[in-house]
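Hello,

I think I submitted the FE2/S2 (inorganic) cluster job twice by accident. Can you confirm which output corresponds to this input? Input:
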Amino acid sequence: MKLTLNKREKVIDIPGETPSLWAIREELGDESLKFGCGKGICGACTILVNGEPTKSCVTRIEELKGTEVTTLSGLSENDQDLTNLQKNWMEENVAQCGYCQPGQILNAYALLKSNPSPTEQEIKEWMYNLCRCGTYPRIIKAIKKTSEENS
Ligand code: FES
Ligand code: FES
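Support: Only one job matched these inputs. Its output is below.
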């Protein structure tokens, strides 16, 4: 089957029921998405499918046929080309261990696309991703800062 991963067309030949988390990491070699709970709870495996945050551990690869998939690897071309959100993430020193952060950033990116000026409450309601390091206050700060810059 064919899908577009980070703006590049990919052909993948594996059983359609394979979780897309494994397919993208193991078959397509993009390890930016992380395996956390494997049950659709933690959000570490979040990818964007046609711009929508999607938990790849509970999404079969066949569901991605013909879609545009974005992982953290595809959000910017290189370190000079970071999105404002990623720059603010770094300025606010959001990450601690870093494990949950690819999913957090992608979900925050999708939030700001759909709602450029979210309230703190809206941010809390949208951001389903869990962080065992408790970086939530800094995540909110980075999202708010980006939203203010964009407004
Ligand atoms: S690994 Fe997919 S939601 Fe936790
Ligand atoms: S930064 Fe460690 S789990 Fe979120």
